[in-house]
Amino acid sequence: MPKSLVQIAVQTLLRRRWHSLLILLGVALGVAVMVSIDLANASASRAFELSTEVITGKATHQIVSSGTAIREEEYVRLRRAGVLRVAAPIVSEYVSIPAVNGQAFQLLGIDPFVDRAFRDYWTPDSFSGQAFYYLLTRPGAVMISSGLAERLGVNTGEEVFIEVAGKQQSVWIAGILMPEDRLAARSLEGVLLADIATVQEISGKVGYLDRIDLIIPAANLAEVEKIKAQLPPDLRIESVEARQGSIRQMTEAFQLNLSALSLLALVVGLFLIYNTMTFSVVQRRDLFGVMRSLGVTRRELFLLVSGEALLIGLIGSGLGILLGFLMGRNTVGMVSQTINDLYFTTTVQSVGIPIESLIKGGIVGVLATLGAAIPPALEAASVEPRLALSRSGLERKAKSAVWLLSGGGLLLVSAGYVVFQIPSHSLLFGFGGTFLVVVGVALFAPLLMKMFLESIRPLLGNVFGFLGKMAPGNLLNSLSRTAVAVSALMVAVAVTIGVSLMIDSFRFTVTQWLEQTLQGDVYISVPGFNANSSLLPIDPSVLEQLRSRDDIERIDTLRATRAIAQIGEVNLSATDNPQIGAERLFKEAVGNGDQITSAMQQGQVIISEPLANRTNLKTGEVIEFQTPRGEQSFKIAGIFYDYASSEGSVLMWQDVYRRWWDDEAVTAIGLRLKEGVNPDDAARQIQQSLQTEQALLVRANAALRDDVMEVFDRTFAITAALRILATLVAIIGILSTLSLLQIEKQRETGILKALGVTGRELWRLVMLETGLMGLIAGLLAAPTGFVLAIILIEVINLRSFGWTILLSVNPLAFLLAVMIALGAALLAGVLPAIKMNRLSAAEAIRYE
């Protein structure tokens, strides 16, 4: 492109500083939201990788138990059999440090004599002879990283208090780990390293191992088969990569949902870019006509407009990356907290900024800006010199194209419906169909806006006089730009309605589910590191003390654990609640509540809806488990609604579980109090009277429900923030559109002033125009948002998490959305109205 055209592009943007700033802000916000979410997802994924890398090290495979642990004798036997070439026994336990609130730490027990081949922290600076000696001989000796030592303010030879399964113990710092690289240093900040015997004693696992790490060359499949042949029924060998992959899959749907929602702000921003570039072209059609007459080619005009868009994209994306980096500090914490609440525990709290997220945001922002500017650039290049001097040409084309656009919208909506009918659990199909529906409805906006304005114009004329006729007339005469702004606001408000209805429906569903399932009066568990059921066993003496109380009618116990089935590792719970069949809401079952309980007592199981949807298991089919006593099949008696985990779970009778898993542990206790006993008072008295070293959560029914809903609100906090940002981008679009419209109508405004129209009347005219745009956007957004809510509930959530949500419609959500659209549009009209009011008639009428 010639240098002179480059100068024209730059001068155009500088001359319209206010409008350039608006469009830059729109692009920047769109890019910032996307970058901040991508940073959060990437950081959470990297935190998971670092948390697992330090634990697994160079291990390629692991021997794990189908029950709760591996007997030490099995490790010795396999060693003597000669099938374990490079192997390391491991005992690990999540612990907390009272001095560092809210973070989980991994207490990792190793055999120092064989572990050097697996992990990289064996540096000369870390393991002096003295540290090595103390690690092996001193009770409670651990090694911690230099970063953690600095956080705790401790050094070698000092004590640190930790909490294990609710019990507080002290450990002694035998040495400080000095990793050689920065990433290893970060990952080790969440680890306390100790001799295997020390961890066995602290965690109560004396004589048992959690796993055996192995290093087996990728090509050596024969070695894997040799090990399998020597394993008893309760042990199995699995690859580390496959195990970590199954854990990552749990968060993929959650992270993909956030990414899709974050793109919404950018999509709304594209409306803004398209609208502004279109205005820029329309306003300079006379200039382009002169340029074409002087020999400027179509290609050069196309490059001129594209160059302006490129400049906007580069600057806006740069600002967006900076803003996204700042926003990412909050979103990283919110996403990490949700993952820790719902999926798995990470011991790494912070990682470096993934540079690829910033690069991705910049590239997407620039390409999106260029893509949105292509239609206006083609418009600039396609007009003949003779027609370019006529501004009405574009509006005639816009009015004649509304039916064509509506036809295209109908095709897109129909295509979206067809995509939803494809028998697939793919979220990409779900989001693809949603995008087609939203864009399709947006294409209907010009026609619906035209019909609405034409029908309401006489009424407004009767109410507001000539201003009432002018306002809709002005919008109709600028339909090519006003319709785009209305579409952008409509999409943003529709998403606000859809997401609000989805969240409200989800909250209503969870509330109904809690009322049905939480029938106990008081619940007792060990504090865990996430919001799902704690897997930590309760001190057996607690049950004995509770049985001696005279204010308790009945005690129900639950054992929650992880077990291996033919479909992979699943959440398994075992209960002795005699009313379990009646206290679950079933999607399908073999009979009524009593019949289901009876079936469970006879050895059948019930599974949650998310697990059934994820695995396609049905009532009457069987699920196979690898138990310590060998493989065992359990018939499925029913599928129950459950919102505790999107991964799903299996529930069986406790005696059946104990028969196959040889596990007497209890992880949760539910108490039914005698009539007249206050649950809050009882919970407080039990908390004070229990004689145990274990810290326990003793909560009344209402308190437990409040805790569950707190996690729910925390989970959707980031969703609420994203929809607000998308609406903010749309408001900027309305403000930009109105400002540019006033520039285009500057001479018309001057003539009106010269004819005696007062400043107050001009103010009313602008408010009428903006109010009409907001009202139309709100009215179109209401049904669109309702359809979007159904899609989110019936398609996106079902495919993402596998649970059924009951649609709960609050009419206030629609009214509020219309008020938001109307209020946003009126607010956006204030600055243009002030500007019009200050403009002198002579200055406005001057043309050259």
Question: Would you spell out the secondary-structure blueprint of this structure?
Answer:
Layout: H1 3-15, H2 17-56, E1 61-65, E2 70-71, H3 72-81, E3 87-97, E4 100-110, H4 129-137, E5 141-145, H5 146-152, E6 159-164, E7 167-177, H6 182-188, E8 191-195, H7 196-203, E9 208-209, E10 211-214, H8 221-230, E11 235-239, H9 240-283, H10 285-293, H11 298-342, H12 355-382, H13 385-388, H14 392-400, H15 402-421, H16 427-464, H17 466-477, H18 479-517, E12 522-525, H19 540-547, E13 552-565, E14 568-575, E15 586-589, H20 593-601, E16 605-608, H21 609-615, E17 622-627, E18 630-640, E19 649-653, H22 654-661, E20 668-673, H23 679-689, E21 697-700, H24 701-715, H25 717-744, H26 746-754, H27 759-801, H28 811-828, H29 830-838, H30 841-845
Helix pairs in contact: 1-11, 2-6, 2-9, 2-11, 2-12, 2-25, 9-11, 9-12, 9-18, 9-25, 11-12, 15-16, 16-17, 16-18, 16-27, 17-18, 17-27, 18-25, 18-27, 18-28, 25-28, 27-28, 27-29
What's this, in brief?
The chain is 62% helix and 16% strand.
Give a structural overview:
With 848 residues, this protein is of the alpha+beta class. Among the domains are: 207 residues, no CATH class; 166 residues, no CATH class; 169 residues, no CATH class. 62% of the residues lie in helices and 16% in strands. It contains 30 helices and 21 strands. The strands form three sheets. The protein has a nine-stranded mixed β-sheet, sandwiched between helices. Strand 17 and strand 18 form a beta hairpin. The mean pLDDT is 81.
